[in-house]
Amino acid sequence: MLRSVRVRLLVIALLPMLVLLPLLLGGTMWRWSDKVDGLLVSKVTGDLTIADQYLARLVDTSGEQLDAVAQSVRFRTALASGQAQDFLEQERLRLGLDFLYLAGPEGRAGFDPADWPVLRRALDGQWHSAVDIFAAPQLDALAPGLAARAAISLVPTEAAVPTDRTAETRGMVIHSAAPVTLPDGQLRLLAGGKLLNRNLDFIDTINALVYREQGLPEGSQGTATLFLEDVRISTNVRLFENVRALGTRVSAAVRAQVLGQGQIWLDRAFVVNDWYISAYEPILDSRGERVGMLYVGFLETPFRQARQELVLSLTAAFLLIAALSVPIFLRWAGRIFRPLEAMTRTIARVEQGDLTARNAQPRDGGEIAQVAAHLDDLLDQLQERDRQLRHWGESLEAKVEERTRDLREANRRLEQTTERLVISEKLAAVGEITASVAHEINNPVAVIQGNLDVARMTLGEHAKPVGEEFRLIDDQVYRIGVIVSKLLQFARPEEYSGASSLISPAKVMADCLVLTRHQIEQAMVEVETDLPSQRQVRMSRTELQQVLVNLIRNAVQAMPGGGTLRLEARDAEGGGVLMAVEDSGTGIPKDVLGRIFDPFFTTKQARGTGLGLSISQQLLSRAGGQITVRSEPGQGSRFEIFLPEPEQG
């Protein structure tokens, strides 16, 4: 069906209306919804800022008022006349405080200044005010009956953290204190506070400041709440029409983010019995501990309903437009696909071998009819050409068969000649390269060796301090000569490519340490050696050096931040020599460990060819030895080499 002209034209006609337009409409509504959500969050963020500033101002004002009383002339007069208690009671009522008392440096029962930062700051000579949490006995000690006013029964709340408590007996208090200097010069403190539990005037004032009349759409409702931990102790959220939701608790998700993590919540949240666009922030006491939350928010339902109504209206408008326009599009498309379908059927008949098939469209039917007429003309020409080609094909078939036999024989002879020519060219090229390499490398090697001998003779006794370095240079020059010899004699038997001799693996390992000393020092790697082996093995010295230098370089590269390189060479039980190269580097992952000896496998990307370990394994196997590895990611790697004792005789 997807190859049908009708289907394709219908897709072209209906795709903009039934696919692209809905996608565009849906994307637009989705972006609009996100922007509306962002605006709602921005609004509730501003609401929370206003509420926070009001609470902070209320706390500061309480401290300022208390300090004004402490420094007033009337208070000093009352102190001098012995009427301080009556004066403080009058001031408590005037300031709307729940308690107000004068205390010495030792405070009063349950209120040791050492335990309360507000009181301690006052004794230091500076007024201070903060939110503090008092237990029920402390409340009653300050003012009889205050604990009963603070107590709130807990109400089971959906989505809250489960609890066994039935009531909240603690009180959240705006706690203030100011220094007082008595006429005799003694320092005292004046402390007072206002209980926020059930303080509905306080929370209604915040709500009135944040959500003024007509500040929200019809049906929405602004709310504010003060929490002691996760319990509502002052709120205008309603359980029922005239019952405030005192004693209900915040959801577990909000509690975890605000009280647990100390972060502000700006999102929708389930509040008592409905969803609100909410903002919560933690309230800190005088000790800097999170003891409660301040909340503002407004009902989400009107915004959600408005969004749903808009989506439904746009969807209905789209469906109406589609119902009116789709039939028109289909009718227009039909005028195009019917002639095209007729041409498609004609072409299909021609493909099946019916060269007499024609469209027979009227020539005055527009552009499509003209295309159909041109197609009929082409089919006429095609039918004539087909007749001519059949005739020519019959005459050519015999000639082609005859020429084909001749070409097969000529091709066979050509392939044989080509193979011989390729082999000859390869041999000539290899011979030329070999002679060039021998000439170009042996001459500078001879110069190096000669100058080395001259240097040794010239230095005389002074050459002894660097005698080991001279010997290593001799070895490497000899190694170059062996490589050139192998290249020249690549077609000869194995024994002519550099004979193996008896060598001491421990000494070769010590030499390799000298060769790689620069790289080791540059990488800030510490070296530990344990080379007690005295046995000899039969292997080319240069090949063993090649293996050990490769392992040492790999170990240094595995410790980019420095580490420890340990080299061992000891006589193995039962004969032979066991050597080890161990590092404290990054180690080899287990999924890579089984492939490190494969040719061209590397984890160094552009820094390696992947042939080092593969060639090392081949060299050791040819000498009758073997190499194994143990590695733990993050703890380093250990490569062990075993070489057997040489056969006697």
Kindly describe this structure.
The protein is an alpha+beta fold and 649 residues long. It has helices spanning 5-70, 73-81, 84-95, 117-123, 136-142, 146-150, 200-210, 252-260, 301-351, 367-459, 467-488, 505-515, 517-522, 541-557, 590-593, 612-622; strands at residues 99-103, 128-134, 152-153, 167-168, 171-181, 187-195, 222-228, 231-235, 265-271, 274-284, 290-299, 501-503, 525-530, 537-539, 563-571, 577-583, 626-632, 636-643. The protein has a five-stranded antiparallel sheet with strand order 8-7-11-10-9. 25% of the residues are buried. The model is unreliable at 489-498 (pLDDT under 50).
Give a quick rundown of the structure:
The chain is an alpha+beta fold and 649 residues long.
Helices and strands, with pairings:
Elements: H1 5-70, H2 73-81, H3 84-95, E1 99-103, H4 117-123, E2 128-134, H5 136-142, H6 146-150, E3 152-153, E4 167-168, E5 171-181, E6 187-195, H7 200-210, E7 222-228, E8 231-235, H8 252-260, E9 265-271, E10 274-284, E11 290-299, H9 301-351, H10 367-459, H11 467-488, E12 501-503, H12 505-515, H13 517-522, E13 525-530, E14 537-539, H14 541-557, E15 563-571, E16 577-583, H15 590-593, H16 612-622, E17 626-632, E18 636-643
Helix pairs in contact: 1-7, 1-9, 2-3, 9-10, 10-11, 12-14, 14-16
Mean pLDDT across all amino acids? 83
Q: Main sheet: which strands, in order across?
A: 8-7-11-10-9
Share of β-strand residues: 15-25%
Q: How would you sum up the global shape?
A: flat
Rounded to the nearest angstrom, the distance between the terminal CA atoms is 85 Å
- The number of helical runs is 16
Low-pLDDT residue spans: 489-498
Backbone CA Rg: 49 Å
The helical percent reads 40-55%
> Class by helix and strand content?
alpha+beta
- Give the oligomeric state of the chains in this entry, treating copies of one chain as homo and distinct chains as hetero: single chain
The main pleated sheet reads as: 5 strands, antiparallel
> Would you report the number of β strands?
18
